[in-house]
Design a protein that fits this description.
α3 runs antiparallel to α4 and α3 runs parallel beside α8. The protein has 2 domains: 65 residues, no CATH class; 140 residues, GAF domain (Beta-Lactamase, 2-Layer Sandwich), CATH 3.30.450. 23% of the residues are buried. The protein is of the alpha+beta class. Helices cover 53% and strands 15% of the residues.
């Protein structure tokens, strides 16, 4: 029994040595056609194939995999380019706005039309009586802390399914139609408001998704809004 175990260990070690040698000498079979003829490989389908056929098959599979990865990278790059152009256009509209209503209207309409969101809402904190216009929604900061305290605690974007009372606060009567949402508090020295976008799809907004461009929009609003909220 001991002799058999020793032979198996030697055989296993010998296979490792052969594999190591061939890996470091890929041209070993160039002038050894007789060895190639004796090599037997089994195709996944069960039939026998030559070494060259098997190698070609593996290279084709690897090529398809690399092409798939490259196509995914190109698709992501195109999507990012489109998002960048839409974000740039929105930022320009926000900078060119001369009234608070124009800021609010441009932001919401762009998110709905250019970014093709199902729902979008900008809620600012303050007294509605103190501001003129009909496109900007105001609520008191105390009411916001009472109804959406968890969303206001985070300085980052919150994505996913929200509670009914949170959806109602953010989207009003349309809140019951929202399956998932992305919410970001607006804060620049003090709490300014909250920006929210929603989808009918319950799985559209997820905690793992990227929110870089929404963060950019929020940063611009954080710099613009204080001038109107004095």
């Amino acid at each position: 029994m001991a002799d058999t175990a020793d032979k198996n260990n030697q055989l296993e070690l010998s296979e490792e040595q052969v594999a190591f040698y061939l890996k470091n000498h890929p041209d070993f079979f160039l002038n050894r056609d007789d060895l190639l003829i004796d090599i037997a490989l089994t195709h996944p389908s069960g039939g026998a194939v030559s070494l060259l056929e098997r190698q070609a098959s593996l290279l084709r599979e690897r090529n398809l995999d690399m092409r798939g990865r490259l196509n995914n990278l190109l698709d992501n790059a195109r999507n990012n380019d489109r998002l960048f152009e839409k974000t740039k256009a929105l930022v320009i509209k926000l900078l060119e706005a001369e009234q608070l209503d124009a800021v609010s209207r441009s932001c919401v309409q762009s998110l709905l039309n250019d970014f093709t969101m199902d729902f979008a809402a900008l809620t600012l904190f303050g007294s509605p009586k103190a501001f003129q216009g009909d496109s900007t929604r105001f609520v008191s900061l105390d009411e916001a802390h009472r109804l959406i305290p968890g969303l206001l605690k985070s300085k980052n974007v919150t994505c996913g399914a929200l509670r009914p009372e949170e959806l109602s606060f953010l989207f009003g009567d349309e809140g019951e139609k929202v399956g998932s949402a992305a919410v970001i508090p607006l804060n620049y020295g003090s709490s300014l408001g909250v920006l929210a976008i929603g989808s009918r799809d319950t799985h559209y907004f997820r905690s793992s998704m990227g929110t870089l461009f929404l963060g950019y929009i929020a940063d611009v609003l954080n710099r613009i809004l204080p001038a109107y909220l004095k």
